Amino acid sequence: MKITRSTDFGQSPAGPGGGAGYTYEPITQIVAASSDPNPSPYTALNNDFLIVADASSQNAQVVLPGAAASKGQHKMVKRSDATFAPGNTVSLVTADGSQIEGASSLSLTAQNALVELKSDGTQWQVIGGQNSAAWGSTAAIAAITPGASPYTYTAPANGQVVISGGTVSNIQLKRGATTITIAAASPADVPVSAGDQVITTYSVVPTMSFVPR
Questions:
Q1: Which of 38, 56, 121, 141 could form a disulfide with 71 if both were Cys (CB 3.0 to 4.6 A apart)?
Q2: What is this structure's pTM?
Q3: What's the pLDDT at 10?
């Protein structure tokens, strides 16, 4: 993985005092190579502010510091591929397994997708950003490969999970601690937000796709 940093310093005030100054905020560029592990991991530093990830050749992964050890830290991660690869992702996990907005991971699946995060000491809270293609571009529909029944799919972004064919007996949508049942129609169109889980029970494997907004 190629790593380029604009500076090795943290947020440093400059200019006139009295609250009228400005800050320098480090920008780190990471480029995953096809020869890197899949996904290619980058462990974020405490003073990383904006991390720009290029997943055009390989899936990239940003490993955030543990939430408890980084309370108050503010980070932004943006996906910006040199050549957008819709089949690849930029995923975020934590070094200690703490959650990101109630989930074990978060993925940026569209070109120019951006997530802004802050640690509350227990988990990383999502406080801004947009996980959709910017400037009018549209992310591609992604095929889902179901595993053993019941299969749980975690949505990487806002969109719909479309389930068709096969022999499906039950579909559930889980958000946080709440689970509801969706009619097992074919096709079934399940609207989801990032981190939602769609749990599908079947005897014959259906075709599943994720349609990002």
A1: 121
A2: 0.60
A3: 47
Instruction: Mention the CATH class of domain 142-212.
Output: mainly beta
Domain with CATH 2.60.120.640 in the chain: 2-130
Q: Which parts of the chain register pLDDT below 50? A: 8-10, 133-137
CA dist 171 and 64 (Å) reads: 33
Class of domain 2-130: mainly beta
pLDDT of residue 110: 83
Residues 109, 65 contacting (CB under 8 angstroms): no
Q: How far apart are CA 146 and CA 109, in angstroms?
A: 19
Tokens of 13: 């005030």
Residue 158 has a pLDDT of 77
What pLDDT shows up at residue 137? 45
Q: Where in the chain is the domain with CATH 2.60.120.1300?
A: 142-212
Q: Residue 21: its pLDDT value, please?
A: 58
Q: Contact at 8 Å (CB) between 61 and 91?
A: yes
Do 62 and 95 touch, CB atoms closer than 8 A?
A: no
